[in-house]
Structures are given as C-alpha cells and as structure tokens.
Amino acid sequence: MPSPYRALFAAPGSKGFSAAGFIGRMPLSMMGIGVVTMISQLTGRYGLAGALSATIALAAAALGPQISRLVDQYGQRRVLRPATLVALTAAAGLLLAAYFRWPDWVLFLCAAGIGSVPSLGAMVRARWAAVYRGTPQLHTAYSFESVVDEVCFIFGPIVSIGLSTAWFPEAGPLLAAGFLAVGVFWLTAQRATEPEPHPREHHGGGSALRSRGLQVLVATFVATGSIFGAVDVVTVAFADERGHKSAASVVLALYAAGSCSAGVLFGLLRPSGAPARRWALGICAMAVSMIPLLLVGNLLFLAVALFVAGLSVAPTMITTMALVEEHVPRAHLTEGMTWVSTGLAVGVAFGSSVAGWVIDAAGARAGYGVPAVSGAVAVAVGFLGYRRLSRPAPGRGGFVEQHSEREERHVA
C-alpha cells in the first residue's frame, strides 16, 4: 500500500473501524444484484426482479437519512443495531417468500423492510472526519474509502451472482445479510472511535438537505444512480442473452476495477483548484463513458467499455464527499453524506426498474439507452446547480479555512 494510505492507520482504532466498514458494506453491492439474480432464476421475470431491487433502493433512500439524523443526535451504537435487526428480519422474510413462491406483495413488503439498512459508508467516513478533520489526510481517507467501495463492487457481484447461479438462488442475498450483521455489530462495538453525538438542542432542528449545495449534489446523483442501477440489470440480461449469465459478475467487477484504480491514484494526489470544477468534469466524463455501451455487440467489448467508464467514478465520488464537507454543518455531517447515498439509491431504483421494463420489451442491448440518457440528465442538472457548489457555506471553506480556524482556537 502506498505510504500516504499506510500513514492513515497510525490513528488508534482506524484499522478496526475500517475493516468493519468494509465487511458491512459488502451487501451494498451484493443485495440488489443478488435479488435480481435470485428472482430472475426462480421466475424468469426481469421486470419483477428490477422492481424489487428498486424497492430496496427506494426504501433505503427514504429511511437512510432519517437513520443517519438519529445517529448524529444519539450516536452510532444506539441507532445502528436496532435498524440492522429490522433489515435482517426483512431479508429473511424476502428469502422465505421467494423460496415458497409467496404472493408478489409479500416480496415487495419485505424488500421495503430491507431499506432500513444503515449507510455504513457514511458511518465510517464520519469516523475518519472526526480523526482527520481540517488536515490533508482527510482527502486520502475519503479516497481510501472510495477504493473500499469499489473493492466491494468488484467482489460483491462475483460472489453474489456466483453463489446464486452455482449453488442455490437465495445464496447471494443470504450471504449479504450475514456480512451486514457482522459488519454493523463489529463497528458499533468500537466505542473509542465513535463520533460524539450532537443532541438536537445543541444545533437546532432542520435537515442537512436545507443546504443549497447539498441539494445540487443529491439531485445530480439521482441521475448518476440511474446509470449504476441500469448498468447492473442490463449487464446481467445482456450476458444471459448470450448464454453466459455468470459472466455478468466478472464484467461488472471490471467496471468497479476501473473506478478502484482511478481512486487509488487520485488519493495519492493533492488536487488544487475548486472542487466544484473537478466535480463537474467528473460528471461529464461519467456521462460520455456511457455512449460506447450503445454499440456493444459482445461481452469482451462490454467489459472493456465498462472498465474505461469506471475510471471517472471514484474521483467524482471522492470530490463529492469533499463538497459535502464544505456545504453541510458539522453536526449534520453523517446525515449529509447519507443524503448523497440516498440520491444514488433513488437513481438506482429508477434506473434498475426502467431498465428491467426496457429489457422485457426490447431486449438487453436497448437497455443500455437508459444509462446513456441518465448521464445526459446528470450533466444538465450539475451545470444548472454549479453556481451553488462553487460557493461554500459560511465557515465551511475547506482545509485552509478549517486549519486557520483551528490555529486561532489554539492561540486563544
């Protein structure tokens, strides 16, 4: 591991909460695609599979920020454990409903319950922010966490799709639930690095979403999430049409590998200039990278195109977290990060659902039109809100301003 990354773990407890966060985030890449694979194998209905995956994402979008707001107020341990128990109970119900062919409404009800899964990425990033706030190491920490996200997306689909196709259909989602339980309960057992809660009376009411800059990030990431959701569902169907359904996991892993590679390199840099400008360029690159998917004719071409497309993902996500730091009050940081994930989740829900119906109606290749259109929408929304992002909220001006504030407090 390059030295800037190794230096991160000099902080006491950082190895433990980072490892727990990695395990707890594996379901992020396993559950949705696992449900798609499971339902498509059991019923052959990609529309239903995409709709269930969308339901999980929409429920997470609705519940995630509320859970994170409670975390900011009461602490991670008190909130995450009961929320996780609800998600695990719902996951068990979904597996039973799929296995015993219960009515569709039971599947949707259980899928909605899985949405109470907490945003482990936001929880771990909040711990890094508590350790390295106001220092250049926080950029490296966010880069590392984006790499961890992509590693999850490299191995998660391979494991989930592989188990569901080679063993039994419910195996992928079942293992995802196990990872969630281990990750959350291990993370919340580490009290020393848990960020200090901010009771409501200390910072007033209201939501982090009142920030105009955060509104732009969330709106843009709804369209960005549609790219991810559609690519997942369409790629599984594309591989299935060519008689190699299990190869979809490898192709999707290459998409994540491209992002992971770019994230590692980006974390070694000390980027200068306005983060908003880098963010806008990243959104444009993600949109342009979807165009070649419209021309794919075989799995090899698709794998190469997705690897190249992934190169713009992690740097854009890293810059997004830096912008959240600039535009959201510290007492709402976990909630603010979760709102970004919520935007992605809503987009994933929309993209996977629309892609599923397009596949059923016109085939997998036509389905790649969904991420292409989503990319264009992301660019449009991002540019319309660019001026908001280029003006940090008062007192949230990034590393230099925070460092100066810290020095002033020290001198005082």
TrEMBL record:
InterPro entries: MFS, MFS_dom, MFS_trans_sf. Residues 213-412 form the Major facilitator superfamily (MFS) profile domain. It is a multi-pass membrane protein. Its main location: membrane. GO terms for cellular component: plasma membrane. Keywords: Membrane, Transmembrane, Transmembrane helix. One of its GO terms (molecular function) is transmembrane transporter activity. The keyword Glycoprotein does not apply. It is found in: Cell membrane. Signal peptide: none annotated. This is MFS transporter. It comes from Streptomyces spiralis.
